[in-house]
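Example 438, ligand nicotinamide-adenine-dinucleotide.
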Amino acid sequence: MKIVMVGSGYVGLVSGACFADFGHEVVCVDKLESKVSALKRGEIPIFEPGLSEIVRSNAAAGRLSFTTDLAGPVAGADAVFIAVGTPSRRGDGFADLSYVYAATREIAGAIRGYTVIVTKSTVPVGTGDEVERIIRELRPDADFAVVSNPEFLREGAAIEDFKRPDRIVVGTDDERARAVMADIYRPLYLNNAPILNTGRRTAELTKYAANAFLATKITFINEIADLCEQVGANVQDVARGMGLDNRIGGKFLHAGPGYGGSCFPKDTLALIKTAQDHGTPSRIVETVAAVNEQRKRAMGRKVVAACGGSVRGKTIAVLGLTFKPNTDDMRDAPSIAVVTALMDGGATIRAYDPEGMEQAKAVLPAGVTYCRDAYECVAGADAAVIVTEWNIFRALDLDRVKAAMVAPVLVDLRNVYRAEQVRAKGFTYADVGRGLDA
Ligand code: NAD
């Protein structure tokens, strides 16, 4: 199969590289010249474990190439995937579809012969209809079908998720398009990955429903964590006790600073807007988004409380900036709200993240001091806060940390340490939802 991937970011590059690894001929297109030239030199513009190997080997085998020119490859393609960003639109939170529609117009001008256009970007219900309308209007002669094939990969485990997905959702009523999609994904369903064939609108909504449900699970356990703190219970044990029930499942029941990242915040907002526009408001998701938003700043107040009620004039070491470990992605990371709240309270911030510092510099307030490692970060600090649970923060030499700090205060927003172990070293220790009997 000849595949074009329009947009070579976290999703487009991973999907394109994995499709090439299945044996397809893939051209990844991006409008960012700098990204494309880096990829051509064999440099990977994002941090994603395993990605550089798979990109390099497939490029060397001639199955994967990169270009800014969309028209040439699209003309010869069996399928064109749209994997551009769909960020929150300023003002109302709906998905900004301008990149999707711009890509659609470019694709429309270039298609030759029967072509399947696939929205892999997360797009609100009805976007496929609009993509189809645009192409039909610009190219009444074109032979094409528009399919929704949402992506469920997680950053940090993207290759594994793409190659061993829990399911592949293909939304189309067009039999020819379904056959093309089956050919593209054949290596996966030979591996027993279930393919769920649905209508296009159903596929589009499935992605939002899945993300909103996961965001709800996280927010639910975060509220239980707050209650645990008040009543002296341990949220990790509560979560374990809940999660062992197969109807609930243990995943996404880790209390922490609130969800962030490039998907859950924007996708919950877009679903809320879609539901409101259709006169069926999603009150649960509205509450989840509001509770999560409050929570991130509340984590700043937790640090202030651990510092005795004020951080004015104090130095706080922030360990971990990305929204989760094993990525460099800073989009909507909880660290942004935590750092901002602490700076608002008069603190000076030192920060360290293994992969996210370049992106962090673009989004965190000016004045943050970026450090080379965790120990340099805590040097001279009045408190240290673990915001992202990178493995290297799970096994810190606590004696060395304590010796470097002005005051031994550790706020563990990911519950990576055992309270008694840290307190035995002489730290003041605060965590999330592990009350007195923790
Ligand atoms: P991204 O910002 O990393 O990548 C998007 C890329 O598209 C950018 O490199 C941009 O330059 C390029 N682009 C924009 N317009 C273009 C055009 N007209 N032609 C060519 N290239 C163009 O975004 P991402 O994280 O890969 O997300 C893409 C989509 O996938 C979003 O809808 C997102 O919600 C969805 N998604 C993301 C994840 C994730 O974990 N990141 C997971 C599942 C789904």
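Summary: The CA atoms of residues 412 and 431 lie 5 Å apart.
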